[in-house]
Every structure is written in C-alpha cells, then in structure tokens.
Amino acid sequence: MNSPVIAVPPALLPRLCNSRGQLDPQHIGWSRRPQLNYALPGNLGRRKRWNHWCITTPQWTLSLTQADLDYVGYGAAYFLDLQTGLAVAHTQLRPFARGCRLPDTPLQSHGFDHPQLQIRIDEQPGRLRLNCVAPSIGGQPLHVELEVMRPRHLDSVNLVVPFAGKGFHACSRQIGLPCSGNVQLGDNSYSCASGQSFAALDFGRGVWPFNSRWTRAAFAAPGGIAGNFGAGWTDHSGLSENALWFGGELLHLPHPVHIEASTADELSNWRLSSADGRVALTFSPHKQHRANPQAGPLRADTQQWFGRFDGALRAPSGESVPVNGALGWIGSTVARW
Q1: Largest alpha-carbon pair distance within the chain?
Q2: Tens digit of each residue's pLDDT (9 = 90 or more) over 108-146
Q3: Is residue 249 part of a domain?
Q4: Distance from C-alpha of 105 to C-alpha of 285, rounded to nearest angstrom
Q5: Which residues contact 135 (CB under 8 A, 6 or more apart)?
Q6: Range of the domain at 106
Q7: Measured distance CA(138)–CA(320) in Å, rounded
Q8: Domain for residue 53, yes or no?
Q9: What pTM value is reported for the model?
Q10: Residue-wise pLDDT tens digits, 304-334
Q11: What is the CATH classification number for the domain harbouring 295?
Q12: Which of 24, 88, 108, 320 sits at a 20 to 30 Å CA gap from 163?
C-alpha cells in the first residue's frame, strides 16, 4: 500500500520569491512534485491567486473556482448533469477578497465564505474533503460532500515561468485524483461512479500581465491515463506544461500541443496534436459554460467545454495507447485584470 502524501510545512519550503516579491530565478522550470512556498509578498494590487477544482464522472461534472486578485475575490460553482443537459451556475464577488482564503502551497486547506456560496477544502494526509453549499443555484439548493484521494505515486505538473518585466506565473496541475462522495441538487442526488470519477486541481500563483489569455485542456481515464495541455502562459518561454500520465507516471512533453476548434460553432469538435506524434486526440464537447465576472473595467471572460476525448497517445515505450471516451474539458480565458 502506498503511504499517504504528507504536506511539508510551508515555512520549511524554498520560497518562490524574495521579500520584495521578485521571482527567484533558480526556481524557473518544472518538476513532478510541488516543492515551493508560493507566497507573494510585495506587488500589491497585481498579485493573482487561483484555485480551480474540476470533478468529472460519467454522469455529471462539477467545477469550483476561487480567485484572490488583491482588490477582489471571486467564487464560483458550476454543475452539469451530462445525462439530461441540466446546467446550473452561481458566482460571487467579494471586495478586497474578504472571505477568500487561498494558501501558499497546493497541499493546504482553503475556502471561500459568502452567505450565498461556501466552498471548503480540508486537506488531510493523503486525501482531502471537498464541501460546497449554495442556498440557491439555478433556483435549487446545492450541497456537495466529496473525498479526493492523493495517491503517493501520482505525479503532477509544477511549473514556474517568467514574463517580460517583473511578472511570472507558477502553477501546479494535479490530474486524475480518485474521487468519491455525493452531490445533492434540489431533490436530485448524484454519486461518484467508483473507479471512473476524478478530481483535478489547477493551482496558480503569480504576478500576471494586465491583459492575459490562455487555453487549457485536460482529461483523466481509468487505468491512470490522463493528459494536461496548455497554451498562452508559456508561449515564447521555451517551457511547457504539456504532460501525459501512464499508470500515474508523468511523461513531460517539452514541445507544443496544438489545440484547435474545427469550426467557430460553440459545440464543434476540437483537435489536439503534437508534431512528435505523441498526441492525436479529438475532443467532442457535450456542453459549453461561459462565465464573465466583471468589476468596473476589470473582467475575465472564460469559456469551458465539457465532453470526451478520443484518439491515441504514444507511451514512453513507443506503444500506441488508445483513448476512448475519456472525460475532460477545454477552457479558454481572456482577462483584463
């Protein structure tokens, strides 16, 4: 049996930044495990902290987002019934990010507190408990109680990328975390399908450009097969967050993965491909979700498509690994913040 993943106290971890908030250049690059304290001193008003959870099951999908942008906090919940097409969403903004507690490492508890939306992630050795309560989301109460496992053998993508000037982006992409538990939406109860339900964490920290855009795709399937692909953040840096998982072991892809919609139609298929032939996938969206929170001139226009991936991956051995109906998503964001 694998021993549990135990978080190292943040004070004992190397710091991403110095006391003035300048990126320590020795941390630029990627690793298979989170190894840093991502505290962001200085840079008041320009710091961005972002935790996004996505739960995929054969019957339903749940997306929970927390963001602390210094001057405003953001919390959002989105639930999609894949069988009926029912989709409900709820968003809240909090001035100066009051009630938005985001940590300095990816393995710490966090939460968002608002009378109309409460999100709680309680980290424990080797697992976490995820709870969400919304008195009214699409006119119905939402209550989420999930347990997410952190298998010790499961690698993640941990990347630090510098931007022009003083900016930088640090992230931890954790994919294929086994998930169990229930969601109650009004009178309907939804359970996680054993062995087919997975959680993913997108942990982001940094001093980001005022105008930002990025695209990201991710999926997980039984047997430890998963993928994470991104564009936008790392362009022209020579660094990549692209990765494949085979049995939980990560294969880093240093080259670009092209993520392209076949047409402008909101539910058209997407193609994902790499020049080295390691990725040849088609994404078929089932539903599109759009969120456009605004605070004065500041905004973040996010589109997220949920659906299935089909095609093939090439393993480190050179073997072709089929991907058949793997659950996942593609997200695209254009932000002015």
Answers
A1: 53
A2: 999 999 999 999 999 999 999 999 999 999 999 999 999
A3: yes
A4: 32
A5: 115, 116, 141
A6: 17-336
A7: 43
A8: yes
A9: 0.93
A10: 999 999 999 999 999 999 999 999 999 998 8
A11: 2.40.370.10
A12: 108
